[in-house]
Amino acid sequence: MAGTYREINYRLRPAKHVERLMLSDMFRRLKFANIESYQYVGLGSVYFTDFLLFHRALGLSSMTCVEKETYDQTRFNDNLPFSNITMEWGLTSDRLPNINLSLRTIAWLDYDGRLSTVVLDDIRHFVGASPSGSVLVVTVQCNPEKFDSANPRKNVARLANEIGAEKVDPALDDEALLGWGCADLFRRIIINQIADTLDKLNGVRSEPQKMQFEQTVYFQYEDDARMMSVGGVLFDRGQKLIFDQCAFSDLEFYRNSSDPFRIDIPKLTTKEIALLDRQMPLPVGASPTLGSIPLRDAQQYVRIYRYFPNFVAVVS
């Protein structure tokens, strides 16, 4: 099966673009060490868009891309944007153990598929191997399945088969997965997987050395498919003060619970964007002058204007 990068140009997904820039702002706040000393582990696709951004914006120099499409190695190698990117060819479940995670790491496991046992195993490995100050972000597809009133637990049964029946509430039915319900369920399962891994890890550690995970982001967005991302920071409890000094909660998109930050891309003209930009940032409690701009689109723009994509078509 051909990789999704043959069907989707990952550079031109506007909600994904906003997510990347927001994550870059979050990573920039890390204070456990100089951000330049972190290594980055990602699933870059042939476009390497996140690698380009994080190297240029953050100065990350040690970067590893895990790529499962081993049949297309020549194309990937031809598109490597920098010499400091190491390719690990194969499935994440096989290649993550090959990466030295004793270094402080920012890992964005940006899967194009649904939550699965493979994803949960990757999470378990990363959490169990990473030092204090490391960051984990996990992205999975969460399109709801078609609801069948004649068989209201068909999709729940499929999900239980994909990730393990013990991780799915037996009282759950398919209706709970509709809308963004699947995303909320996946977030909860991922957070529980991290917590279970840390419980086992902390059993033999003294109190200050016990590791904890604090969620800092929970995104929901839709370009071509519904996606969710949840992420946060792993740190020794003795370094809680350093975590607090990162001041992640000052970020508008900060989320440490099941309440998501929804990335909605408003449909605005260039002139409408210019009108709104001249008013940014809005004073607290103020409302923008709209002209003929629909209120909903203006409200969406105000929330993300600093990260809004500026893709344009060039006519020559």
Query: What is the CATH fold-level name of the largest domain?
Result: Rossmann fold
Distance between the termini: 37 Å
Segments where pLDDT lies below 50 for 5+ residues?
5-10
Q: Main sheet? A: 8 strands, mixed
Number of strands: 8
Tell me, what's the shape? globular
Please name the fourth-level CATH homologous superfamily of the largest domain: Vaccinia Virus protein VP39
Number of helices: 10
Tell me the domain tally. 2
Q: Return the string of H and E elements.
A: HEHEHEHEHEHHEEHEHH
Strand line-up in the sheet with most strands = 3-2-1-4-5-7-6-8
CATH level 1 class label of the largest domain: Alpha Beta
CATH architecture of the largest domain: 3-Layer(aba) Sandwich
Structural class: alpha/beta
Provide the residue-averaged pLDDT: 92
Q: Name the beta content range.
A: 15-25%
Report the radius of gyration as a whole number of Å: 20 Å
Helix content: 25-40%
Describe this structure in words.
- The chain has ten helices and eight strands.
- With 316 residues, it is an alpha/beta fold.
- It has two domains: 4-144 and 179-263, Rossmann fold (3-Layer(aba) Sandwich), CATH 3.40.50.150; 270-307, no CATH class.
- The model is unreliable at 5-10 (pLDDT under 50).
